[in-house]
Amino acid sequence: MVSLEVLDDVAVHQADGTTIVEQCKSATKQNPLSDWAEDLWKTLSNWLDFLEAGELDTTTVQYRLYVTPARFGEIAKLLHDARTGDQVDIAVESIKASLTGLKKKPACKQLVARFLEADPEHRRMLVSRLRVISEDDDPVDPLREIFKPTVSPLIVDLICERAIGAAKEAADRMIRAGLPAKIDADRFRAELRAFIQKNNLPGFLSSLTDHPSSEAVTEVLQSRPTFVRQLELIDIPAEGRVRAVSDYLRTAADISKWGESGLIFEANLRDWDEDLIGRYQFIAGEISDTHAEHNGQTRGRIVYRRCASLQPPFEGRAVPGHFVHGSFNALSESRRLGWHPDFSVLLEAEE
Fold it and tell me: Which domain of life is it from (predicted)?
């Protein structure tokens, strides 16, 4: 199990009863591992406070200080390398000597003093179990290395984004419910594995978005964009217009996500639009010939429903059901096609 902001920034609760508490520091503007960096000494001071207050089990806890981008500090390395009580004591004496040799005391002198004057046993417990990790210029790189051997290079960043976002959302959801932000590792892995299996299929372009909120759909319906007005012209029922708006919004969001992930390109979309327009023209021509006895509204509904039921592939890949429907409505929005035989005249008459 992993917890966020419970014992520390991050805590890993392992099956054998040990716990790893982690402090994560950004080094984009300064070096948290420099010898007299306030971040370094404040972290050590906080961990000593937790030890003395009995908030951490001294026999099972381990400490990690993670810094990115990669940085270095002599004292941080000294503490990282100290594995035994004797080595910790030697490191402490070295720190005292370095502090004494300074012409001007550092701004963090009180935090340093807190460490140097701490209970020696607590200090040994802390430092001997401390590891300082600062190897990655990009904090996502270690995650990428996990996924690279088994997933397509095109979706590695997408999988990383999903993993990070899902963890944050799970933690936020628990916090909103007034619960400790603890994430069940087995459940998280199972959900992520299912996401990877779904998106790692070369012949399937999977949706990366959720259904839009009812508020977002209502807002679009009330604003009556062109594609909604086109549906009104052929008297599509309210529930059908709700579905159309939902699919339209989700399609737009998927196109954006797929483009950001390098799964599709602008040229692909142009070809896709031309393919749909060709299919629409074929269907509209057929309906005009075979249903000439019906009025424009009825013929328009038949054309619309025929188009919405199509499921052509995108560049040879199967697509989610909402994508074709949403794409047709996007073309309707730009008036590159219309459902009513006289849609251009009727739309202009409204304006």
Answer: Bacteria
Domain boundaries, the chain: 2-139, 140-200, 214-350
pTM of the entire structure? 0.58
What is the per-residue DSSP string for 153-217? GGGHHHHHHHHHHHHHHHHHHHHHTTS--EE-HHHHHHHHHHHHHHH--TTB----SPPPPHHHH
Contact between residue 205 and residue 155 where contact means Cβ atoms under 8 Å apart: no
CA neighbor of 301 nearest in space, from 220, 237, 222? 237
pLDDT class of 41 with cuts at 50, 70, 90: very high
> String of b and e for 172-207 (b: at least 16 CB within 10 Å)?
eebeeeeeebbbeeeebeeebeebbeebbeeeebbb
The torsion of the CA quartet 322, 324, 329, 334, rounded to 10 degrees, works out to 140
